[in-house]
Each structure stands twice: as C-alpha cells, then as structure tokens.
Amino acid sequence: MVVTPMGGRAGDSNPRAIVQHSGRTIPAVMIKFWRRQGQLTYGRGLLGNNRGAIWTLMAGGLMVLAAASADTASAAEGRIFVIGNYPVEARASDAVKAKEQAIQDGQQAAFRSLLKRIVPVTAYARLKEVKRTPAGPLIEGFSVRSERNSSTEYIASYDFSFQAEAVQQLLDRHAIPYLDKQAPRIVLVPIYQAGNQPASVLAEASDTWMYAWRGLDLQNSLTPVTLGQTKRQINPDTLKAALSGDTAAHRTLSTEYNTSLVVLAVIEPNADGKKATVTLAGQDSVGYFQLARNYRLDGDLAYTSELAAVVGLGVLEGRWKAANANQMTARAPDPWAGRFDPAATPGAPPPPGGFGSAPPTAPRASGETLRLAVSFQGMGEWQQISQRLSATPGVGNLEVEGLSARGARIALSFPGGPEELARALSTQGLSLRRGPDGLVLSAR
What we know:
Elements: E1 2-3, E2 19-20, H1 28-37, H2 51-75, E3 82-91, H3 95-118, E4 139-149, E5 153-162, H4 164-173, E6 186-192, H5 199-214, E7 225-227, H6 236-243, H7 247-257, E8 262-269, E9 275-283, E10 288-296, H8 301-323, E11 369-375, H9 379-390, E12 396-403, E13 407-413, H10 417-426, E14 430-435, E15 438-443
Parallel strand pairs: 6-7, 6-8, 11-15
Antiparallel strand pairs: 1-2, 3-5, 4-5, 8-9, 9-10, 11-13, 12-13, 14-15
C-alpha cells in the first residue's frame, strides 16, 4: 500500500496521486486525519517499520471511519463519479516517469469519460472547453486494480474517483446539463448466436462476448448492470420471441432472473463472417426497447465485441438521460427547437406534389441510407415508434444517431427511397413527411 497526500512532491514515485490501494480507495477524510497526525510520508517510505505509529494511526482512524461509514455505505452500490477499471499506459525514459505520465494522462481521459457519462449527448458539443479543465484538482482519489511495467513502459488499470461537488460546480458554471441519478439496476444477458459452429467455437465466442461486457465499468455506470448467464430454460424459441417483443417471453425472462428489468444482448455474425449484428432487446429502467446495429467483424470478434459492448452501455445510459431530461441540474437549449413542432398534428400530408416536388435530402438508390428526424411526445411514444419501425418490411440497418427527450435522429436502409418508405410506414400507423430540414417521422 502506498499513500501519498494531495500535491505530492516532484520526484516521488507517485507524485500526482492522492491515494493508491489495491482494490479500494481510501476516503479523503482519512487522508486529512493522517495529515493532521503527521503520519503521512511520501513515496515508498510509508511509516517504515514503526508499528507504534501504525497502531496509533489505526486507533484514531477507526473513529474517523465510523463517522464516515454512512456515506461510504450509501455509495457502496455504485458511484457515478467513479470511473472504474480504466486502462492507462505510457512510455518514457524510465519506469518512474512512465508511471507518472500514465497516471496524468489517465486521469484526464477518465475525466472526459465522466463528462460523457453524466452529460446528455445533445450537450456534448458544449463540452469542448470543459474537457480541457485539468483533472488533477478534481480527483478525490484513485486505486490500482492491476499494473505491470518494464524499464520504460507502464501499463495498469485504475479506478479514478472524482469530487462530485467540484465537477457539479464546474458544469454549473458553464450551464451544461447533467444527470447524477443512477437508474435501477438491470440484468443484462450477453448471448452469442451462430449456427453450424462447433461447440468449442461457440463456447470460446460466448466467453469473448461476456468478457467484453465484464471489462466495462458496470458498477458505477449511470445505468448499473449485473451480468447474467444464459439459462437452459431459455430455449431458442423463447429467445426469438423475446427479441421480437413478445410479452409472454419477457415474463419468462423476468421469472428466470427474478426481475422485470432484463435486457438481452445478442451478437450474431453474418454468414460471410464480415459483419455481426448486435441486438439489445428487453426492459430497462425506461421501458421496453429493441435496437439492432451492424458492426464490421472481419475475423476479429474480440475487438468487435468490445466496441459493441461500449456502444451498448452508452445506449442504456443515453436512454436514462433522455427519460430524465426534466430532472437535469441545468437545462440545455432544445436541439430540436425550430426543426419541427412535436405538438403539430401527426400524420400531416406531404407538401403539394408529394416527395417528388422537392429536392431529395436522402439517397434514393435502392438499399442506400436514409436519415430521418423522429418526433414524439415522450419515451413511451418513442418506444412504440421504434418497435413499429423495426417491424416494417424492408427496413434494415436501423441505427439511432441521436436521442433527446422529444426527438431522435435515425439512419436506416430501405429499397425504393422515401416515397416507398412512406407507403410502407403508413401500414404500421406511422407518418413520414418532408419537413424544412429533411424527412420527419411521427406516429399518426
């Protein structure tokens, strides 16, 4: 264990750290107590073999820890302002400098991850100046999960704990909205699906997909996740039905995992092995949803799995932030203001002459990508629209590019262009019309 007070001396083996301890972070209140008692030293020489000092420190520290136990217990379930299991890496002329550089770069990168966690995607563009804020003064402490080094290289995994109040005040000064309320915990079940593959290949691929999710900071996420194993009772028919939105199948999942908040994360490689489709389906803290996205595979399942897991967790956090937009500490300007009126009469007819009278704003070639703005009144209506959209024959490669409390930006492929898509969507109770800035989708 190495403990170094804030603002360590230049030349220490760990000059910028507040706390290092394998597996946990020492509360800041303990650091203050130790500093007052004069028991802190720098670098590697912590207390030496002075057992009397150690017992004195422990006896006094127990009283302080008792006073802080309530706060610690309340944060045990997961802390939004902790970025856990964060990789750091650096090379330098010697191992000490490499470690110092890795920690300095790592805490700045972890700060950027924290901002993306709590700030809605609609306000990301306003974070440019905030992200340049030095992260050092905002750090409350950090702990080392694992580390290895050579004479010139340092590689490790850290948990960085940020001062909640300091980060909140920083965002408030810039009038940037943020959400610091965790969602109810969900169970997420990673499933690898592929036909006609040997059992050994399926087992290895399933482990790869599971490990990709385990490598994320699921405990401290805005949407905390418990990973569940696939159960024998979930047969292929139940799985297929659950992915299609069948309520009876979801009740089966709820019974097996003892919670209604169950999300399936299914990765399935295409027959040619060049792409993989990842589907998230189930009920999270916002409601039922289903999203599918294609990823390049090219034989590297590990990389694709890691990328898809990161994006998947971001989708869960984004849904929670959008659903709680009215509870954010600062309100950002509505990015959809002036684009279209969500309160306008849904199902309005196209402009005179139909789609053909205006210049196209999306590719018309068969199967090419179309981009749409989606108008809705709340997350419940958005879920209904997304389900109907997914059920529309011919619609593929559906991707949500942006989501706010009142609108979304999506991309999809459909043969035939906007006119044919409008006809197909009308059979699902959806209206596609041309707005001043492009195609607008809404429920009728």
